[in-house]
């Protein structure tokens, strides 16, 4: 949700702010805006436009204002539609203070009423605008100290936020704060940055600082001061960013999604590296894995599907009961959790608000948390007892691909680890699985070498009103993932079903010509025959069968062959053609692949 960037330094601010916005646009693209301090004490220079960043860039033309500090915002709309007026930055009534925001201010209605009574004039429908007026008043009370004003204002806000503010009386100073929403500092030479994530400034510096909950950061070109809510100065928590700018660029691919699909062999290999023979026992130090009596996986969207696959593996190899919960539903049910419950949040971004809140609920009830995450230093791993990082590298496309396969790998590694620690997994079987895991990068490579014909195949169904996905066992969550990819990219009705469940209702959806993608269980397994019967059932009712299988299938109208692997590992191979089909369908239907409508990459609101 919303990308935020701030620059202060010796260089001109517009270029790094625009570059940051370009890199953060995947977080939201309903509008974009920039505010710069050009002349001390004068109204700020500001431009903002509804729509994608390109609309803003068009009106900017070649004009480069002489400014050395500024902030920029790319929006995913929550309060107020995607209009020019609702675009950030928002200004105080003097036009000298500008604010950008990611998150939701839950008490904005009462704040706004109070501020209007005090004479403030509002120009937008956003929750954010209340904060800029509050900050303007607080700054006066604090005799022009923007950081002190920010601390006071944060104490009055309910909800989640990352805030960045500048004031034209103080050129070169940017003040930020965060609660339940991401903000990192980029530490440069004679320049410093603030941003929603490190990709915004990765081409300028690889040094970053973490910011904790309710901390306020005050930067100039040569200083960084972090304080807690009471104003106490805190030590810096600096870390080195482990990837470089090229990882966040398209590198010759037409879209980030395509690049990320092709990066999967590496993402899998990097996530496996040094771990196939077992996880470092240090990784779970402090968690008594033998003493747990239940595992609860919490996640959203694609990560939830990875969790569903994880359930099959953990229950089988570690012989422990696993619930997989949609994070957005979990805490509101007030489920029973105790110290014997192991919570596994799965998140690519590490910032998904639903997952974070569900995890906090479980922690507050005594559960231990072992998270799976792709983003170093993000909030979810920071608040976990233990973390298993996936090493997929930065994922920019809104539709998750390489993060998903890396999450699957993490779930297999975790299941093996639990099985070993708990003594429930035969060492010979564990060894066989480890060998199969090690072969996966090459097998995914093999799948990628054969996806070319999928373009033509996909085009055949471009005008279909619906596509159904069937699977059994670990093929069922794979079917759900295939349907999700198609929905978010092709804007097409798509649903995933468990093969055996069809006859209990969904088979009524099948009509002559309905395309059905069948994810066939590994040949020779118990469910392969059952699934073959389910396929016959839909075929008999007129469906066109596109089968993903490691063996020939007579009933398939179109067969996508994948290599054989261990039956639990098959989703890693079968999901790849599904990703390619969704990608090709988006293109065939003229959709924006990397920035599908209404979506944003990192969902930092509930
Ligand atoms: O960053 P997270 O893994 O926590 O994100 C969870 C979901 O929002 C995410 O997987 C979403 O479903 C993807 N856009 C799907 O492609």
Automatic annotation (TrEMBL):
<dbReference type="Pfam" id="PF13522">
    <property type="entry name" value="GATase_6"/>
</dbReference>
<keyword id="KW-0808">Transferase</keyword>
<dbReference type="InterPro" id="IPR047084">
    <property type="entry name" value="GFAT_N"/>
</dbReference>
<dbReference type="GO" id="GO:0005829">
    <property type="term" value="C:cytosol"/>
</dbReference>
<dbReference type="InterPro" id="IPR001347">
    <property type="entry name" value="SIS_dom"/>
</dbReference>
<dbReference type="GO" id="GO:0006487">
    <property type="term" value="P:protein N-linked glycosylation"/>
</dbReference>
<keyword id="KW-0677">Repeat</keyword>
<feature type="domain" description="Glutamine amidotransferase type-2">
    <location>
        <begin position="2"/>
        <end position="222"/>
    </location>
</feature>
<dbReference type="Pfam" id="PF01380">
    <property type="entry name" value="SIS"/>
</dbReference>
<dbReference type="GO" id="GO:0006002">
    <property type="term" value="P:fructose 6-phosphate metabolic process"/>
</dbReference>
<dbReference type="InterPro" id="IPR035490">
    <property type="entry name" value="GlmS/FrlB_SIS"/>
</dbReference>
<dbReference type="InterPro" id="IPR029055">
    <property type="entry name" value="Ntn_hydrolases_N"/>
</dbReference>
<keyword id="KW-0315">Glutamine amidotransferase</keyword>
<feature type="domain" description="SIS">
    <location>
        <begin position="457"/>
        <end position="596"/>
    </location>
</feature>
<dbReference type="InterPro" id="IPR046348">
    <property type="entry name" value="SIS_dom_sf"/>
</dbReference>
<dbReference type="InterPro" id="IPR005855">
    <property type="entry name" value="GFAT"/>
</dbReference>
<feature type="domain" description="SIS">
    <location>
        <begin position="285"/>
        <end position="424"/>
    </location>
</feature>
<keyword id="KW-0963">Cytoplasm</keyword>
<dbReference type="GO" id="GO:0006047">
    <property type="term" value="P:UDP-N-acetylglucosamine metabolic process"/>
</dbReference>
<dbReference type="GO" id="GO:0004360">
    <property type="term" value="F:glutamine-fructose-6-phosphate transaminase (isomerizing) activity"/>
</dbReference>
<dbReference type="GO" id="GO:0097367">
    <property type="term" value="F:carbohydrate derivative binding"/>
</dbReference>
<dbReference type="InterPro" id="IPR017932">
    <property type="entry name" value="GATase_2_dom"/>
</dbReference>
<dbReference type="InterPro" id="IPR035466">
    <property type="entry name" value="GlmS/AgaS_SIS"/>
</dbReference>
<protein>
    <recommendedName>
        <fullName>Glutamine--fructose-6-phosphate aminotransferase [isomerizing]</fullName>
        <ecNumber>2.6.1.16</ecNumber>
    </recommendedName>
</protein>
<keyword id="KW-0032">Aminotransferase</keyword>
């Amino acid at each position: 949700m919303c990308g935020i960037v701030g620059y202060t330094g010796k260089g001109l601010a517009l270029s790094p702010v625009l570059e940051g916005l370009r890199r953060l646009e995947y977080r939201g693209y309903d509008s974009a805006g920039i505010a710069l301090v050009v002349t001390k004490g004068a109204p700020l220079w500001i431009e903002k436009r509804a729509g994608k960043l390109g609309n803003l860039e068009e009106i900017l033309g070649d004009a480069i204002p002489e400014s050395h500090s500024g902030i920029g915002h790319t929006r995913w709309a929550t309060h107020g539609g995607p209009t020019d007026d609702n675009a950030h930055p928002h200004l105080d009534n003097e036009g000298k203070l500008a604010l950008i925001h990611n998150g939701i201010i839950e008490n904005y209605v009462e704040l706004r009423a109070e501020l209007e009574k005090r004479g403030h004039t509002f120009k937008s429908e956003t929750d954010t605008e209340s904060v800029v007026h509050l900050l303007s008043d607080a700054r006066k009370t604090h005799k022009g100290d923007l950081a002190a004003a920010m601390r006071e204002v944060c104490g009055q806000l309910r909800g989640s936020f990352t805030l960045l503010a500048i004031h034209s009386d103080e050129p070169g100073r940017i003040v930020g704060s965060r609660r339940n929403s991401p903000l990192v500092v980029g530490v440069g030479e004679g320049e410093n940055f603030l941003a929603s994530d490190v990709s915004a400034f990765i081409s300028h510096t690889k040094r970053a600082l973490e910011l904790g909950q309710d901390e306020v950061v005050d930067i100039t070109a040569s200083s960084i001061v972090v304080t807690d809510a009471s104003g106490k100065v805190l030590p810096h928590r600096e870390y080195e960013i482990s990837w470089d700018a090229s990882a966040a660029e398209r590198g010759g691919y037409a879209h980030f999604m395509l690049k990320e699909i092709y990066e999967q062999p590496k993402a899998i290999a990097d996530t496996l590296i040094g771990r196939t023979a077992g996880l470092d026992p240090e990784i779970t130090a402090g968690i008594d894995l033998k003493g747990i009596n239940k595992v609860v996986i919490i996640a959203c969207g694609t990560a939830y599907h990875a969790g569903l696959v994880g359930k099959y593996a953990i229950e089988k190899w570690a012989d422990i009961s696993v619930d997989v919960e949609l994070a957005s539903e979990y805490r509101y049910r007030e489920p029973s959790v105790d110290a014997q419950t192991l919570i596994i949040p799965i998140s690519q971004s590490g910032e998904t608000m639903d997952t974070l809140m569900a995890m906090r609920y479980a922690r507050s009830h005594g559960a231990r948390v072992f998270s799976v995450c792709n983003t170093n230093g993000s909030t979810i791993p920071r608040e976990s007892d233990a973390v298993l990082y996936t090493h997929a590298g930065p994922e920019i496309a809104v539709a998750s691909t390489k993060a998903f396969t890396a999450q699957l790998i993490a779930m297999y590694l975790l299941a093996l680890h639990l099985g070993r620690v708990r003594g429930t997994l035969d060492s010979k079987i564990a060894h066989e699985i480890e060998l199969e895991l090690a072969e996966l990068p090459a097998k995914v490579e093999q799948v990628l070498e054969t996806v070319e014909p999928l373009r033509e195949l996909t085009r055949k169904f471009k005008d279909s009103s619906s596509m159904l996905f069937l699977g059994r066992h670990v093929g069922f969550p794979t079917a759900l993932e295939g349907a999700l990819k198609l929905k978010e990219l092709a804007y097409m009705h798509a649903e995933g079903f468990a093969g055996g469940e069809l006859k209990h209702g969904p088979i009524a959806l099948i009509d002559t010509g309905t395309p059905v993608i069948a994810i066939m269980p590994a040949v020779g397994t118990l469910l392969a025959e059952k699934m073959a019967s389910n396929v016959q059932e839909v075929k008999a009712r007129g469906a066109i069968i596109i089968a993903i299988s490691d063996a020939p299938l007579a009933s398939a109208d179109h067969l996508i062959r994948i290599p054989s692997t261990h039956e639990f590992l098959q989703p890693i191979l079968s999901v790849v053609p599904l990703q390619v089909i969704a990608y090709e369908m988006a293109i065939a239907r003229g959709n924006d692949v990397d920035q599908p409508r209404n979506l944003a990459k990192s969902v930092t609101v509930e």
